[in-house]
Design goal:
The complex is a heterodimer. Chain A is 74% helix and 4% strand. Chain A is built from eleven helices and four strands. In chain A, a hairpin with a 2-residue loop joins strand 2 and strand 3. Chain B is mainly α. Chain B has a domain of 218 residues. In chain B, strands 1-2 form a two-stranded antiparallel sheet. The longest helix of chain B has 27 residues. Chain B is globular, with a radius of gyration of 21 Å. Classes of the chains: A mainly alpha, B mainly alpha. The interface between A and B is large, with 40 and 41 residues.
Chain lengths: 287, 324
Amino acid sequence: MDSAVLLQSLVNGLMAGCIYILVAVGLALLLSVMGIVQLAHGEIYMLGGYLTYYFCSIAGLHYLLALLIATLLIGGVGILMEKVFFRPFRHGDLSPTVILSLGLMLMLQTTSVVSFGASTKVLTTPFPGVINVAGISLSNERLILILISIVFVAGLFLQKTEIGRTMRAVSQDMDAALLLGISVDRVSSFAMFLGCALAAVAGGLMGAIFSLSPFMGGFALMKGIAVIVLGGMGSIIGAVIGGLIIGLIDGIVPPLLSVEMASTIGFIVIILILLFRPQGIMGQPSK
Amino acid sequence: MSRKLVKPLSYSSLIIFLFLIPLFVTSPYYLHIFIMAGIGIILACSLRLIFNSGQFSMAHGGMMSIGAYTSALLMIKLGLSIWAAMGAGAAAAAVLALLVGYPLVRLKGIYFALGTVFLEEIIKLIAQQWTDLTGGVLGLTSIPKPNPIVIPGLLNINFASKVDFYYLALVLVLFTLLILYAIERSSINQTFCSIKQSDSLAQSVGVNTAKFKVLAFTVGCFFAGLAGAFYGQFMTVVTPSAFGFVYTVYIIVYMVVGGERKFYGPIIGAVILTFLPESVRVLKEYQPYVFAGVLMLVIFFLPEGLVSLPQRLKMFIRERRTHA
């Protein structure tokens, strides 16, 4: 593999990693704040992509504006979902929450097949052209995607805000947080808003590079789960590290072997790491 | 009639009735649904065994693939008979479960669940990759028909119609339920339940929790392999995506909607959730709504599953009476 291909696949890996991180951070937030495995998270990501597409193609908005509106809307949908569906199951047993989110997943997927059609849709690239760096051509859209994701993820770290602290308090001990006068309902709503919004960003970015289909959520969900398991559940730094590892595997392996081999290797790496560190790279050992 | 006789009599009449069903139901379409319900019962009940030992396994679809591919390949490449091939398929799933079981049970709770998700994905990806052996994405298509069972002058089952497959499915379901029920009533089940309630407490009183967890996982996966092997025979096609993540989740839904606390819960769940979506077949693309709707209603209003419905109704009526 010559250096040009290597660099190209590194950029691809970085891009994939960014998307995985955006999806995984949402999953990690919901898991730690509400104790819920959100299987419908992939569908939220898919909806984000479709909304961006429709705002661009039908309303004729600029891509970035469309992405922003779609993100906020999906965040709102998240708040609604938390209120209606997830609130009674907060920090409960595993199986009801899995079943519940599966029901949501089926409903959202069917709704989008019925309303958007099962065929794939392609968003015309908002940032055409390529940049030549040291003899290697990199497409603008991929670089901008990476940039946007870095901005969003960095935003999570830079703010040591009140809401961030309360979220951590709730994830450590919900009852104690309640005793201290934290509104667990509000914190959950916010976590759901943030998680869904980040997934929508990922979907909107992905839609601009690849195509959209009602079934794209399953892949994102699988990668997102892989990332949070690898990184350690409920740890945002872990999600970032895990996302980069999985993303780089997915970027570098395909030119050497095949796309499926990349996924296989990724899963085998995760299982091997889990055998020696069952709580993931940055996770706390379970009590 | 003494009360002691009621249960065995009603069970045996139910079984006789099930054997007579092909006399009333002749449409191949309905027999097909009956057979699919049977496969669902084997899967949901065997998954319940794994759940009862406190493990949330999501690898059942993957284990089904192992069973289906093993038995189909043995029949195609080595020309084994269906019985040997089905046994080998189930055994292959059990052996794999035993091998990966020990490392996997180190993972607790949700980590175990997600670890099994990856196991299933790996199985699917290998089935897609290893084109020489598994036929890649297109899968194995030319699975031979089961060898006919001939007892001269008495019986000639040649597996030409769905009726013969119905009987095979029925026998497999009864065999599975018999063994699972025997486990349910044995002392091993007590150990499983103690592990489910508190892993560390069971360990502290000297239970080798790893051993029992792997045992439950292995036995559960054996039946998943058996169901997969039968499925391959019945459909004559095995593809890598036939038993994916979504299929596994359907099995979990059968179990939870029926109610996993009772032995017969998963049976009820599998039967109802196989027949109900078929009843709205005209709506085709809206079919998942029915499935999703049922499971949402059950999760919100009957958290212990459909098996708790009669008890709930009884309580409701009693409350009404006392208030009136």
